């Protein structure tokens, strides 16, 4: 018994993923301190047939999702800075030479903006290092996931080929990177959530109470957008406001979040672990950001950007298969 206890203690000390919150075995931590919440598998009705919702939210259909982990908070500026310091990686915004910032009355494309900047285009103040990182593309999120996997001694979920243009990327206007990215969902490393995983988690998984927003029918309890009251403009520190049924924060408001899938139409067919179309022009992003409408923060709201896009209200959170 003593030997077994010693082994378990050593594993906990030297393997960050075995660190738990209190005595809760359903929460693990990455080496950056990110809490990963276990989402037990289940079946739910994805999308909405409600009157007034977007046509791309229809038809509602049955989806079964296997068990997985998802971060309780969005990736912060401080966490992303560790990745850059360790790898000297150049983000899409740095390669392209610009990103989009919020101005007083609108948003604009501005040269020289990248992940080091806040939503307004200013160099990030140290007091805001626990706010979400923004001005990051889908490709940047993929590279961050692989870095964190290697850092934690896990098998990276993504294989990335930067030398050949992806034939499944149908964008002909803006994406000059077009990396071929493949995901091994059987790997134990970090990755972006699929769109189905994101919605299932946002709804509260098997603990869902059927709220309109992630964690409440009263949006003011769980998030903020610049059109809501009390009026706040700009991002907030991750972990603010009430979490949803699973303990996930800011899945309403703050920043919109990249998902794995190419964007595509729903069908009425029942699905198990859907991962989106084989090809497309845009990658899914979920959650309405602080710069949007309360309507956009519903659990079923969906939209997309081309994968090289970076924006003042666009970030991500990590997930991983339960392996």
Task: Describe the structure concisely for a colleague.
Helix content is 17%, strand content 20%. It has 323 residues and is of the alpha+beta class. It has a single domain (38-67, 76-318), classed as paralog of FGE (formylglycine-generating enzyme) (Alpha-Beta Complex), CATH 3.90.1580.
Describe what this molecule looks like in 3D.
This protein is an alpha+beta fold. A hairpin with a 5-residue loop joins strand 1 and strand 2. It has six helices and 16 strands. Helices cover 17% and strands 20% of the residues. The chain is globular, with a radius of gyration of 19 Å. The chain has helices at 2-14, 77-87, 92-96, 138-151, 195-203, 219-222; strands at residues 27-29, 35-39, 42-46, 61-65, 68-71, 98-102, 107-111, 158-161, 180-183, 190-191, 256-262, 271-272, 283-286, 302-305, 314-315, 319-321. The model is unreliable at 1-23 (pLDDT under 50). It has one domain (38-67, 76-318): paralog of FGE (formylglycine-generating enzyme), CATH 3.90.1580. The two termini are 26 Å apart. The strands form five sheets. The chain has a five-stranded antiparallel β-sheet. It has a four-stranded mixed β-sheet with strand order 14-13-11-15, covered by helices on one side. The longest helix has 14 residues, at 138-151.
Notable traits:
single chain, about 325 residues, alpha+beta, paralog of FGE (formylglycine-generating enzyme), five-stranded antiparallel β-sheet, four-stranded mixed β-sheet, 16 strands, disordered N terminus
């Amino acid at each position: 018994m003593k030997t077994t206890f010693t082994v378990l203690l050593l594993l906990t000390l030297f393997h960050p993923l075995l660190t738990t919150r209190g005595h809760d075995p359903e929460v693990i931590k990455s080496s950056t301190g990110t809490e990963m919440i276990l989402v037990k598998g289940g079946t739910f009705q994805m999308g909405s047939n409600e009157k007034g919702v977007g046509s791309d939210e229809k038809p509602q259909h049955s989806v079964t999702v296997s068990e997985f982990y998802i971060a309780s908070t969005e990736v912060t500026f401080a966490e992303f800075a560790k990745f850059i310091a360790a790898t000297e990686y150049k983000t899409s915004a740095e390669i392209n030479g610009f990103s989009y910032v919020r101005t007083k009355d609108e948003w604009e494309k501005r040269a020289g903006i990248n992940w080091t900047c806040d939503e307004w285009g200013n160099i990030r103040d140290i007091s805001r290092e626990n706010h979400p990182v923004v001005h990051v593309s889908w490709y940047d999120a993929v590279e961050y996931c692989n870095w964190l996997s290697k850092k934690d001694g896990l098998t990276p979920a993504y294989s990335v080929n930067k030398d050949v243009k992806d034939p499944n990327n149908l964008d002909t206007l803006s994406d000059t990177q077009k990396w071929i990215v493949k995901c091994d969902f059987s790997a134990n490393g970090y990755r972006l959530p699929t769109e189905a995983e994101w919605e299932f988690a946002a709804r509260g998984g098997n603990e869902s109470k059927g709220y309109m927003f992630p964690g409440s029918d009263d949006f003011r309890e769980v998030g903020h957008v610049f059109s809501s009251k009390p009026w706040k403009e700009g991002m907030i520190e991750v972990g603010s406001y009430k979490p949803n049924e699973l303990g996930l924060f800011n899945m309403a408001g703050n920043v919109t979040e990249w998902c794995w899938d190419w964007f595509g139409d729903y069908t009425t067919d029942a699905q198990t672990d859907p991962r989106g179309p084989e090809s497309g022009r845009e990658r899914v992003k979920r959650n309405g950001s602080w710069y949007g409408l309360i309507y956009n923060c519903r659990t079923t709201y969906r939209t997309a950007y081309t994968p090289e896009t970076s924006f003042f209200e666009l970030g991500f959170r990590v997930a991983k298969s339960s392996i």
